[in-house]
Amino acid sequence: MKNVVILGSTGSIGKNALDVIRNLRHKYKVVGLSANSRWELLAKQVEEFKPKSVSLADGRWIKELKNKLPQNSVQILTGTDSVKEMVSRDDVDIVISAIVGAAGLPAAIEVIKNGKTLALANKEALVMAGGIIVSMAREKGVSIIPIDSEHSAILQALRAGHPNEVKKVIITASGGPFRDYPKEKLSEVTLEEALNHPTWQMGQKITIDSATLMNKALEIIEAKWLFNLDSTQIDVIIHPESIVHSLVEFCDGSVIAQMGLPDMKVPIQYALTYPYRENGNVESLDLAKLGSLNFRKPDMDKFPALRLGYEVVEKGGTMGVTLNAANEIAVQAFLDRKIKFTDITKTVEHVMKEHNFIKDPTLQDIMDADAHARKETKKCIS
Ligand SMILES: NC(=O)c1ccc[n+]([C@@H]2O[C@H](COP(=O)([O-])OP(=O)(O)OC[C@H]3O[C@@H](n4cnc5c(N)ncnc54)[C@H](OP(=O)(O)O)[C@@H]3O)[C@@H](O)[C@H]2O)c1
């Protein structure tokens, strides 16, 4: 039996992770759950999965959560040290981090410090501080298993060869809802259109990131850190059907792909069972029914976010944290209908260009750069 903590259990990935565990109850037990403010859903999850502890980041709702749950049935935590307390328990084996955005960075660091396996959906943590996270994990002997479908696909394909036989990885992208839109029309797209992703059901932030292709930029950076690649070893290809989740090309010309219907339960389950597999509760892929799969080059002019992702991989340092912070603020401004769709990437590029670059940042430098970029982005937007 493995004991699992799910950080961000009320979100899209968190709910899928609970679905996976419902199907694997004989092997995995939920011992901790966390959310930001959705206390009612969290309470329902606690009733069903009966974890030992639960944490709510936004303390304003803690009274409601306490009133809803039977007294002494579960340890209820809030405040800055709550994640630390939850993941440091001796009986925790795996922590799924499905928090959205920069709030996931301190959590990822706590998981690694405590020597627990990190099943990581929160790619923003690696984008902000990949160098620090990866070297800390190496020092502590901690495995970071990606939940992102593309990186799970790469991890699975890599098992076909030796690390020094890898030529490059090819990350697939659905292209989002605007892949066939003319460039000139992108500034006019509405929030509703941007939130209507063609193949994946996800949280709002990643759905907008998928529409700008900033999500792919974040994934290029994530791939660099997870698999120790340089920018020339990471390709992106548009694949509208989202069936091939990514590919690895080896030195002999063999290309190994991982395929399946677009269902996040597959990479979530693989992160739990890695390096083994268990029976899954997902639909089978019927290639004959699909008929054909399509691939084409991404248009970097139309989606300049991709270029910014490569720039971060090449320059490193505080570029990643700056891109991430500026993007989080700009996406929120678009969600609040304060800026146009095309302003998201333009603003991020501007803030990256102007920031005070540090080549080898400490964690404190990263937190400072994050705060600075958020301030500058807000200034730029207003
Ligand atoms: N969705 C996908 O298919 C998908 C695929 C690949 C990777 N990812 C990555 O997985 C992560 C989660 O994405 P999602 O789509 O599941 O997001 P989501 O649906 O918005 O859920 C986010 C979760 O994080 C919690 N949260 C938000 N702010 C927090 C804070 N300040 N402190 C603690 N918890 C906080 C939320 O709690 P409340 O519910 O209380 O707000 C919720 O449980 C992102 O990094 C995303 O890029 C997602």
Can you put this structure into words, describing what you see?
The protein is of the alpha/beta class and 382 residues long. It has 2 domains: 2-146, NAD(P)-binding Rossmann-like Domain (Rossmann fold), CATH 3.40.50.720; 151-260 and 285-315, no CATH class. It is 46% helix and 15% strand. The chain is built from 16 helices and 11 strands. The longest helix has 19 residues, at 363-381. It is globular, with a radius of gyration of 20 Å. The model has no long low-confidence stretch (mean pLDDT 97). Bound molecules: NADP nicotinamide-adenine-dinucleotide phosphate (NAP).
User: Uncertain segments of ≥5 residues (pLDDT<50)?
Assistant: none
Proportion of residues in β-strands: 5-15%
| Strand line-up across the major sheet | 4-3-2-1-5-6-7
The total count of helices amounts to 16
Q: Overall mean pLDDT score?
A: 97
| Beta strands, count | 11
List the ions, cofactors and other small molecules found in this model: NADP nicotinamide-adenine-dinucleotide phosphate
Which term fits the overall shape?
Answer: globular
N/C terminus separation: 52 Å
Q: Spell out the CATH superfamily of the largest domain.
A: NAD(P)-binding Rossmann-like Domain
Which CATH C-level class of the largest domain is it?
Alpha Beta
> Could you give the order of the helices and strands?
EHEHEHEHEHEHEHEHHHEEEHHHHHH
Largest sheet: 7 strands, parallel
What portion of residues is helical?
Answer: 40-55%
Class derived from helix and strand content: alpha/beta
* CATH architectural arrangement of the largest domain: 3-Layer(aba) Sandwich
CATH topology of the largest domain: Rossmann fold
Could you say how many structural domains there are in total? 2
Gyration radius, rounded:
20 Å
